[in-house]
Every structure is written in structure tokens, then in C-alpha cells.
Design a protein that fits this description.
The structure is a homodimer.
Chain A lengths: L3 H4 L4 E11 L4 E9 L6 E4 L2 E3 L6 H13 L7 E6 L8 H10 L7 E11 L14 E5 L10 H16 L12 E3 H12 L5 H11 L2 E7 L9 E5 L1 H10 L7
Parallel strand pairs in A: 1-6
Antiparallel strand pairs in A: 1-2, 1-4, 2-3, 2-7, 5-6, 8-10, 9-10
Chain A binds a DNA duplex (30 and 30 nucleotides) through helix 6.
Chain lengths: ~250, ~250
DNA sequence: GACCTTTGTGTCAAAAATACACTTTGCGAA
DNA sequence: TTCGCAAAGTGTATTTTTGACACAAAGGTC
């Protein structure tokens, strides 16, 4: 727009999103595959981009996420600001920035966000506007672009904390789910084993689950009871405050 | 420096610090008194300012804090980013910005930080480099400049959460303190009453306090036992993880 | 020495956490 | 058809933690 000199004077601000999904087995994160400029191999990054001049941060995060993945209007929670002056200075990051940014040398402070979505509700459309967003199991994620690994770790930490303050994670499951699935979800997020009986007892005592008549079908073992999440009771409890929630 | 046009193109970044102090009775926050431009009355703000071009965020927060209050090299924890496009648009805020900023119209995204200090360790120097930093009891704080009230509320919330995950707050007390003082501190932060006997039982069971031989002197009632905080044991516990900490 | 103020202490009942093993159900393979 | 496999589902006994509660002790002041 104006001369480049001035673009280097002031920092830019971006938003990066850590989207957690659960495939009833493992915890996944939605990542963007980017081609390295040299074209050797791809490398992975969180969906994120610069914010607009007059855009609230949360709005920007949602817009950027939508542009890159197609996900719409999700509740995003802030992880924090990441602003190390050389967070963009790894060689392949520099190369990518030079290829796509008007002012690749500008400092960028990014605001990290995270959210949970059900993996069933969202299947990345590989070749469309969702450029190359893919679910990657969290244990298989190694290094990421920029300081995205750090943002991811921060988001996971917040997610764990949150899970111990209020029961969340229903977003990550289909509408009807089994207690075992919920159990696996908790174990996946917290990264520990939880006793089956104790988990069930505690979860049911909260009284935010409704058991359905329906049961699993076609499984080669005893079919599991389906439950659904009772939003009404959940919100009532949110007001009075949860009391026994930590696992 | 350059023409004003360009200054308006990109956002600025600032750091604002919420410093909690405890006077053995009430929880206080360190605020800057500013004269309104019209000179009618003062109004209060968190210590904060723009960050430098190549400065890490945490470093900037500490520098700014030091410049405005004299406090040095404190561990600051991030509250989050606050970036509403019209967070600077209250009339008196605009007036102040016009008086002191080169580009008063630039958007500013701020990163909030918080910390705890012992009020004994730090007495604001009214007329010196610490321009007009003063401790204000937290219940007496009303509206603040910009969105600082919101930042303060966010910081307090984080502080409460943190207090329920690990025993902190020893920074807020003198080196030797009594259990009653610690008790009052917890009540001040959490904003609730805690049973004296249960509080003591639980706190002592954590085994991070050492009772000293020394007792209070000159008080018109039964003198209280002094304790000190055992950092060694605390750090050992930090690794293994606290287990019973919430009040 | 009477009074005031704050410290410091113990118990009991209720609730919650933890550890732990076997039966049930339905499918698929022999 | 039956045998085996895999996951679901269920109960109890023990220990730990919480929460409620009241009175004696110490030291200064008047």
C-alpha cells in the first residue's frame, strides 16, 4: 500500500487457532499443510493469519479459521499472546513469509486461541477453500511452523485445566455417545488412565447426562448404552458452580 | 518520525500490569494516578505503556512496570490480549492519548500481565521516577482508564484459579508471617470466608511451611507463631504435582 | 485484676476418593 | 451350535478428606 519502510516500523498482529477434535479414540488437532517454497516436503502450521485493521481479536480469529478451514463461528478461547521477536526466524519460516507476505520482515505478535469440535461435524474439504486442513493425532505432531508448537502446548495445558474445572468436551463427541467414548475422551485429553467404574460413577452423579433407550448395534461385544448431554442442566450448574468435577 | 498516515496503518502493542499487594489485611492493586488533561480530577490506570520494536513481550512488561513504578524484575504472568478496536475511545482516554502520544489514533492491542508482591518490599516513591504509583484496596477501585478494569478483573480471576491449583501468595507476605496473615490473604484473594481450623489443618498438611521459634511481640492479645515458607519443599512438590490444594 | 482481642486446638459425622474382579452381551470363527 | 473374544456394566469395603463447631490460653490495656 505505502512504502515498505513504514511497514517495518510497526508490529502486525495475527491470530492462530488450535482446534481439537476427537475421533472416538484419539485427540486430534486441525493443521494446515503448507508446501515449503523449495517444494521439498510439506510442513505443518496452525490455521492463522493477520488480523484486519479494525477487527476485534475474537472476530479475527474466527474469520481466519473460517477462511482456512471452512469452520464457522466457533467459540474460541484465548490461550494468550506470543510475541517473541524472533518467533518467525527459522529458515523455512522466513522463506514462506517472503513468498506470501507483503512485508515478510515485520514483527508479528500472535494471539493464540483454542476450541473443541466434533470430528464428525467437520470433515475437512481437501481441495476446496479448506486448502489442506487435516486432522492430525496429537501424538504424531512434531515440530510445527513458527512457534506453533508452543501455542499448541499452551492450548493443551489450558484445555486440561478447563476440563478439571467444568465438564466440557461434549462438543467433541457426536450427539449420542457412550460412556466409554466419553471416558476415552477424558483419558485422551488428560493423558492419564482413569478407573472405569469411578469415572462412570462420578460423571453420572453430575447429572448432566441423559441415558437414551438406544444402544450400540453391530459391535462384536456387549452393546453400549447411548447417552446424550443435557444442556439445560449443564447451564443451570454453570451458574451455581460445579463442585466435584476434577478427575 | 514519518508521516502520520502511516502510523495509523498498523496497530501498536502495549503491556499493562496488574500488581497485587497485600498489607496483611486487604488486597491492593498498584495504580497510576493520571491527571486528566482538563485538570479536573485524576483518574487511575494500570501501569502500562507501548512496547519497543524488538522487545519480547515479557521483557517489555517488566521494563514498563519499572519505568512507572520502580519495581524491578518481577515474575509476571500473562492474563491475555485485549484488543477491542474501540478500547481507547472513551472521551477522557482520547484526550489523554492526544496529549501524550505521537499517534493517538493508532489502534493499540495490549497484553495484560499480573504479579504479586509483598507490600513491605515495595513502597511507592511518590514524587520520583515512580510518578504517582499508589496502592489502592481492591474494593475501592471503580472505573479505570481504557479497558483496565476488564484487565484487572481478568487478572483477579486468574489469580483465584491459580491459588486453587498451587499455593502461591507467599510473595505477598513478609518472610516471616503468621498463619492468620496467610489465612487473611487467602480470604482476601478468594473473597470468601474460610474456617480457621480447617484452613490451618490443610495448609500445614501440605508441609511447605516451617514454624519458627519466634512469636509476635507487643500485640495486645496472645502472640502468634511465626512461620516461614520452605522453598525447597515447595519446588519438590511443584514437580510431583500438588494434590490437595483447593480451598 | 477485669476485660478485651486474637491465637490455637480436637472431634465427629458426612462425603468423596480409591482400589479392585467378575458377569453380561453379542459377534464371529471353528 | 458352541466356543472364544472383546468390551460393557456393575458394587463394596477402606481410607481420606471435608465441614461444622466451641472454648481455653496469652498478653496487653485500662
Amino acid at each position: 500500500m505505502h512504502d515498505k519502510m513504514n511497514h517495518e516500523l510497526n508490529p502486525r498482529i495475527s491470530a492462530d487457532c488450535v482446534i481439537f477434535g476427537f475421533d472416538l479414540n484419539k485427540l486430534n488437532v486441525l493443521l494446515i499443510e503448507r508446501e515449503t517454497v523449495v517444494g521439498l516436503d510439506t510442513y505443518k502450521a496452525l490455521p492463522g493469519d493477520l488480523i484486519f485493521e479494525d477487527e476485534p481479536l475474537d472476530t479475527a480469529a474466527n474469520r481466519v479459521l473460517n477462511e482456512l478451514t471452512g469452520l464457522e463461528d466457533i467459540f474460541l478461547e484465548q490461550v494468550g499472546a506470543f510475541g517473541d521477536p524472533d518467533r518467525l526466524s527459522k529458515p523455512q519460516d522466513r522463506a514462506w513469509l517472503k513468498a506470501v507476505r507483503q512485508d515478510p520482515d515485520a514483527r508479528v505478535v500472535t494471539i493464540g486461541y483454542y476450541s473443541l469440535v466434533g470430528m464428525n461435524n467437520y470433515v475437512p474439504q481437501p481441495a476446496s477453500f479448506a486448502r489442506a486442513a487435516t486432522w492430525i493425532p496429537i501424538e504424531e505432531i512434531g515440530e510445527l511452523a513458527f512457534d506453533h508448537r508452543q501455542i499448541l502446548d499452551g492450548a493443551l495445558k489450558k484445555l486440561k485445566e478447563k476440563l478439571n474445572v467444568q465438564p466440557i468436551g461434549f462438543n467433541l463427541l457426536p450427539e449420542k455417545f457412550t460412556l466409554s467414548q466419553l471416558h476415552r475422551l477424558y483419558e485422551a485429553i488428560l493423558g492419564v488412565e482413569l478407573d472405569k467404574r469411578n469415572f462412570r460413577r462420578k460423571m453420572l452423579k453430575m447429572d448432566i447426562l441423559e441415558s437414551l433407550e438406544e444402544r450400540q448395534e453391530g459391535v462384536p461385544h456387549k452393546p453400549s448404552q447411548f447417552y446424550k448431554f443435557n444442556e439445560q442442566k449443564y447451564h443451570d450448574l454453570l451458574k451455581t458452580g460445579f463442585d466435584n468435577f476434577a478427575f
